[in-house]
Write a structure and sequence with these properties.
seven-stranded mixed β-sheet, Growth Hormone, Chain: A, elongated, four-stranded antiparallel β-sheet, Rossmann fold, alpha/beta, spermidine biosynthesis, MFS_trans_sf, transmembrane
């Protein structure tokens, strides 16, 4: 048996895989390899989560995007593991090269995705799918490189001290899985909120290339030829230089990309911990646009039409002294509710305290909501809407306004479920009404009528109506990259009440605004013409959107 520090036999071929010539004791060397496994696993999972997060934000439909990223990466990891078999005779040099490329690709992936989305997603044609294609390409490339790590690390750890395959695999995978845990926790709780997606990915790439380079050039340097050492050193320094330059330019890049997406009048862009909030315009006579996670939530030209249509039919049709608004942290729905003088109390339940703070303090947004949150009748609670409803008092409200994101967005699916509407029914008074924004009627009729079917399954009867939008930026669904394809841009609503009879939307003097009674009745008929029968209800365990 060859001793751990024995030199290669004279005349041994370059592919000889005898014991490594280490500058430290074998036990210490083995520990350092496992530390590198830990760090590389953490970095790999951060790359994976960063792709999922960016895809969900930029493209939409987080379940689909997460499935694409994860499935492509797992497949590519298998291919990468097979491909690494050709490198195992030169495991140290191969691992150093893999880590340098992985650090560069993974570290720059977020910036590249954002650039393609910002400057090509609106071009149409073959460019319309640019972000999706790049997402798949990065998932494939990162998966190939991550997959190549494990066979090479297994070869390196066996070069230090031979042991049975089962024991070596157990040690390697234990370090790998613990590293993945740390990376998975660091991304949402440290990197994303503190550094943001761009800088967080660049820092991860830096850690990755330093760990890989230190292992190869420090611990296994005697396994490398002089030329290989210099090549790997220069490659690592080049990658570090690129990542450092990108980090230095990240602020300017993000501002330029944000202007490309939202226009030049961006006033506020904050990550609240729940979502990204961007305010465009709203001062000096400019219309205010509110974007939440990249989606236009309130557009200056159509914001009033949307909120009047959501609020006034429900409040004009019966008693409305006690009103509950679910969502509505921007204060715009509360503004319309307060126009009805009979209102005595308005409870707003919003999950994002950062949005509520902006609604109170930002001059543009607070002017748009007419300082609704300063009214003593308005009481704001920061909580998860579904969880709050579970503890809410029964029969406490005359009207419930569900001012929630589109039902097709994965995070909102639970807020359009049969269970959710069952809880909403419990808090309504016997003659209470529930107003629901249910997405675009014309562009996505199955989604709209699934909401109707879900309401009926929860014991409601509902009347549909739609309002046409005029702003060409109005989103047709949860997917930001979806084009309207000529379909009318509209909002769909359902006015529901417990029991077998659906309420007929009415407008009193206070609730007309841009609406008319004749126009509202025509909107009811227009929505009915799109009806899709036989759709099943959506539930928490079986979402249908």
């Amino acid at each position: 048996m060859i001793e751990p520090h024995a030199p290669a036999p004279p005349g041994a071929p370059s592919s000889w895989t005898g014991p490594a010539l280490l500058p430290v004791r074998p036990g210490t060397g083995r520990f350092l390899v496992l530390v590198c496994v830990f760090v590389c696993a953490a970095c790999g999972l951060v790359y994976e989560l960063e792709l999922v997060a960016f895809a969900s934000y930029l493209i939409g439909d987080s379940v689909t995007q997460a499935s694409v990223v994860l499935s492509v990466m797992v497949f590519a990891m298998g291919v990468g593991s097979l491909g690494a078999k050709r490198l195992r005779w030169r495991a140290a040099a191969g691992f150093g090269a893999v880590e340098a490329v992985l650090a560069l690709v993974g570290g720059c992936s977020a910036m590249a995705l954002y650039a393609v989305f910002a400057w090509t997603a609106g071009w149409g044609g073959v460019w319309a799918d640019g972000p999706r294609c790049l997402l798949v390409a990065f998932s494939l490339a990162i998966g190939l490189l991550i997959g190549a790590e494990v066979p090479l690390l297994m070869e390196l750890i066996q070069r230090i001290r031979r042991q049975d395959a089962g024991g070596a695999v157990a040690d390697l995978f234990a370090a790998d899985y613990v590293g993945a845990l740390v990376g998975g926790l660091a991304f949402p709780f440290l990197l994303l909120p503190v550094l943001g997606q761009l800088t967080g990915a660049l820092l991860t790439g830096t850690v990755n290339v330093v760990a890989g380079g230190a292992l190869v050039l420090g611990l296994f340097r005697r396994d490398l030829t002089r030329r290989a050492r210099w090549i790997l050193l220069l490659a690592g320094l080049t990658v570090l230089g690129v990542l450092a330059a990108a980090a230095a330019l990240a602020g300017d890049f993000e501002r330029a990309a944000r202007h490309a997406v939202y226009g030049r009048n961006v006033r506020v862009a904050v990550q609240t911990g729940v979502q990204e909030v961007v305010l465009v315009g709203g001062t000096s006579g400019q219309p205010l646009d509110l974007y939440l996670d990249g989606r236009l939530r309130a557009g200056g030209r159509d914001e009033r039409r949307y909120h009047e249509a959501l609020v006034h039919p429900a409040l004009s049709t019966g008693p409305h002294a006690r009103v509950l608004i679910l969502g509505g942290g921007d204060g715009l729905a509360a503004r319309e509710v307060l126009r009805h003088h009979e209102v005595r109390r308005v409870d707003v339940v919003e999950r994002d305290p950062g949005l509520v703070r902006l609604a109170r303090s930002d001059p543009g947004l607070s002017a748009a909501n007419a300082h609704a949150f300063a009214d003593p009748r308005v009481h704001v609670t920061t909580a998860d809407v579904l969880g709050w409803l579970r503890g809410a008092p029964a029969s406490a409200y005359d009207v419930v306004i569900a001012d929630l994101p589109d039902p097709g967005i994965t995070a909102s699916t639970k807020l359009y479920s049969q269970e959710f509407y069952g809880l909403a029914r419990r808090v309504l008074a016997p003659r209470g009404r529930l107003a629901v924004h249910a997405g675009a009627v014309t562009a996505r009729p199955r989604v709209f009528w699934t909401v109707d079917a879900t309401l009926r399954a929860a014991g409601f009867a509902a009347t549909p109506y739609r309002i046409l939008g005029r702003d060409p930026r109005f989103a047709v669904g949860p997917d930001r990259a979806t084009k309207a394809s000529g379909a009318p841009r509209d909002w769909g609503f359902l006015l529901a009440a417990p029991g077998p009879l659906a309420p007929l939307p009415q407008l009193d003097r206070m609730g007309r605004g841009t609406l008319t009674q004749a126009g509202l009745e025509a909107d009811v008929r227009a929505a009915e013409r799109t009806r899709v029968e036989g759709l099943p209800a959506s539930t928490l365990v079986h979402p249908r959107y």
